[in-house]
Amino acid sequence: MIDSYDLYQDLCSEANTFQGGFIPPATVFIRHLNLINFELWEMGCRESEKSQEWRDNMRPFLISQNIITNPATSYYTTANIPKDYGRLFKAGMITVKTDDSTITIPNDKINKGLCYKDEDNQQVTPPAQSINDYLKSIREVDITEIDLQRWDACLNHEFEDKRPSMTKPKMVQVNGGFNIAPRDVSVVVLYYFRLPKQATFAYTTTTPNLNTGAGGQIVYDAKNSQPLEWGVNLKNEFVVRLLEKFGIVTRDQFIEQYSLHRNK
Predict the structure, then answer these.
(1) Domain range annotation of the chain
(2) From CA 163, how far away is CA 78, in angstroms rounded?
(3) Which end of the chain, N or C, is more open, meaning fewer C-beta atoms within 10 Å of its C-beta?
(4) 140 has pLDDT over 70
(5) Please, what is the angle between helix 4-18 and helix 235-245, to 10°?
(6) How many CB atoms lie within 10 A of CB 166?
(7) pLDDT given for residue 20 in this prediction
């Protein structure tokens, strides 16, 4: 995690280098910090599709969840999304063959096999069969996301092997959740990026001495503050973006100054 107070001190240090002045920590500073927090999260969601570096950066926000689908009333079923859902990473399901069909089960390594449904966690009991047969028949299957414009065509494809099946399931995001086909899918394993927590900066100040001018210093309250959830490797990225937000320095200027400082 990145401590807000450390960032504030770094910002003030760089700001004094370029222009001086006081930056209010609990208002102006924290507002800009949370704007950057969300900007980086949005960028991370996009870049994680093609960059291992950003997949690593986004690990604090990646959540996996078993989700029970709702009873099917059509040729597809539906799944609600958790409250902290931000962006989809991928979706899949775990299938098991029974005597007469193929069913879906939760991933028992995620939340001890508990499943999300309507804000509650519920237990799903695997089918009764021998452990050996059970383990032999388990398969992990990716669920392909389809855009809404192609959803109907996907469900009604002229070739049966192109339609959704238990070996090639499909889904579309709509109405605050997902439609998933075929309708036999009862449990989905959803991998998603949750929204980042808002950073907070709690502090008090020492009583100033009117005669000497001493005091009035910030006393940071770490216990009642929310740090940024990013890894410390992104600390400099936050400093650069804060300096840009305050109009103190451009990215190129900061890199130049930082390089000069390191070479001294």
Answers:
(1) 4-53+200-263, 62-194
(2) 17
(3) C
(4) yes
(5) 50
(6) 17
(7) 43
Contact between 145 and 88 under an 8 Å Cβ cutoff? The reply is yes
Both structure tokens of 72: 């099917």
* DSSP-based three-state secondary structure for 124: coil
CA 6 to chain centre: 24
Which tokens belong to 130?
């021998």
Distance between CA atoms of 161 and 13, rounded to whole angstroms? 63
Per-residue pLDDT tens digits for 3-44:
999 998 888 877 664 444 567 787 888 999 999 999 999 999
Q: What angle do CA 65, 66, 70 make, to 5 degrees?
A: 125
Sign for the pseudo-dihedral over CA of 240, 224, 221, 59: negative
Tokens in use for 243?
């300096």
What's the pLDDT score for residue 48?
93
Classify each residue of 201-227 as buried b or exposed e, where b means 16 or more C-beta atoms within 10 Å of its C-beta: bbbeeeeeeeeeeeeeebebeeeebeb
Q: Inter-axis angle of helices 235-245 and 30-47, to 10 degrees?
A: 120
Summarised one tens digit per residue, pLDDT across range 141-175 is 999 999 999 999 999 988 888 899 999 999 999 87
What is the value of pTM for the model shown?
Answer: 0.80
CB 3 within 8 A of CB 239: no
* Per-residue tokens: 220: 């940071």
What's 20's DSSP letter? -
The DSSP bridge partners found for residue 44 are none
The torsion defined by the Cα of 230, 231, 235 and 241, in degrees rounded to 10, comes to: -30
